[in-house]
User: What shape does this take?
Amino acid sequence: MRILLIEDDAEAAAYVAKGLRETGHVVDHSANGKEGLFLAAAESYDAMIIDRMLPGIDGLTIIQTIRGAGNHTPVLVLSALGKVDDRVKGLRAGGDDYLVKPFAFAELLARLDALARRGTRSSQAETRLQVADLEMDLLARKVWRAEVDIDLQPREFSLLEYLMRHAGQVVTRTMLLENVWDYHFDPQTNLIDVHISRLRQKIDKGHDEPLIHTVRGAGYRLGGSR
Amino acid sequence: MRGIALADHARLLRSTAFRLAVTYLAFFSATALLLLGAVYWTSTTFIDKQIRETINTEITGLADRYRQQGVGGLLQVISERSALDRDRKSLYLLTDSLYRPITGNLVGWPEATADAQGWLSFTVQTQTPAGVGLFDATGRVFRLPGDYNLLVGRSLRDADQVKSALRQAIGFGMALTVLLGLIGGVLTSRMLLDRVEAITRTMRGIMGGDIGRRVPNRGSGDEFDQLAQGINAALDQIERLLESMRTVTDNVAHDLRTPLQRLRSRIDVALLGEADADDYRRALEETMADADRLLATFNALLTIAQAEAGDRANRLAPLELLPLARDLVELYEPLAEEKGVRLRLAPASHAGKVMGDRHLLSQALANLVDNAVKYTPEGGAVTVTVDDGHCLAVADTGPGIPAEARERVLEPFVRLDATRSTSGNGLGLSLVQAVARLHGARLELAGNDPGLVVRLWFPKEQAGGSARSSS
Assistant: This one.
């Protein structure tokens, strides 16, 4: 992917850019708002990472400006401001996701991946999801694997739906907590792991090929073994 | 002394209250003047009208007498009446066609000319106890057949006396009005000024650093008392915020310094001796875990600070406790099950709404449930209850907290490390308390025989109503 990184802190920028390049992305970096806005408007990117507080033009203004110009490139907002209100402001300005500093690189990568793929997915509402031999009917709210029905609790269903929508991608625990439960705090316990292991019992038990994989140091990935 | 008194006067004259009093006084005086003026005008008009009616009646009477008895009869009546009226209140003069006097109590025909109806004003000399006086008079000319001119008049001496008495009364009344108004104005404005002055003095004291000062409250419940109460409430809030800021600063120092020291020592040790790549990797991983714990503590402190710096009105919205509790129980249920603890939501009788911040309340409840699950031994139970719609309770069957220590654990800093805080940053209850305070809720710790019940009593005021005014 071609990614624009607008971040004024040199060390943080170097860290993110290095990580992204090592995972096979092309990164353009700008250290101030004005140049960043110019790049965002002139070039074409698959995703942008924009720090909220920048010299010159601040991050949210950049997002509002490019959105106003009809540019719908996915934007991940980085910020040291972590209150729920700040998050809402960031998303309202046109950001697609909001990541509070400091963050783990794996978290950034997972979210960026999710954003970029959301951008390419068809906008048409899906009614069926399928990953390998696992199928989900969103209208009937039914799940089956290899023709065998699986009985899920409502929250388990939402959890699996999120995983299936992001099949093949790494999904972090925080992403699950935010998107499936709508909680924006760190519970400091392995809560999500317990939920996943329950889901795993229902999805993978009795099948040769596991679909839910644990990605060490990052989170989970749903899909056939690679 | 004099200087102070002068300054005091100047201040009084400049005060809003005094200006208001003067304005009100001007209005009131104008009204009084208008009213008294109307009374005066009505009275004098009535007196003048009476005089003219009397004159008219007399002329009619005299004219009748002349018609019946001729000049002789008329002369007789006039001289009789003139003789009777010593004070010359009634005035008569009969003249021939050339205005030469024939009879009457007037010396000569007045200089003034009569108007179309024959009315004229003139002056007469009258003997009074004080001497000869000149008085206004009014009269009417009547031409009798046979070329006689008859003038019938009335001295205005009495009428003028009445009018002048009236004028005096009005003047006196006005003077009294203005005087009383002025005194009242000064007294009122001085009274108001004193109250305002008391507030200003308090504010000055506070600006000077004495944050504990409060505006005196007279207890009469008037507007100034209400203002004082409002200001005092605001000051309480400011003082509390300052206090909590101090607490947070202390907490930051205490809670972050120790783990930072640990982190630093670890790096120190790793750098000290010869080590291979695996050792370094392990040291780095441990350091990262330390950093994550530090971050979690830092976030908890920030959340506490955020909850304590609460601007309630903006942040709280009507919210149902039951779904919030249900979601959280559902989130923790698998974890509890894994530990062999039964976590459940007690069925609620009826669910009400409270004014709340969903994120902070969820986090507080998460802390309580997390603690409860953590300290409840296998086979125990944790029950979350939403009672009455305004009480949220988490009950466990763990070791509990001894009654004498319950008060203490709510105080900042105090931790029963031995019993309550085997892992985690130990800020759980501080956060719950901060969130409770933001919501105006009472946090209560009680025994569960065995175990602990933590209850959050939310204010009973209706969600969406004026949450502030009744507190």
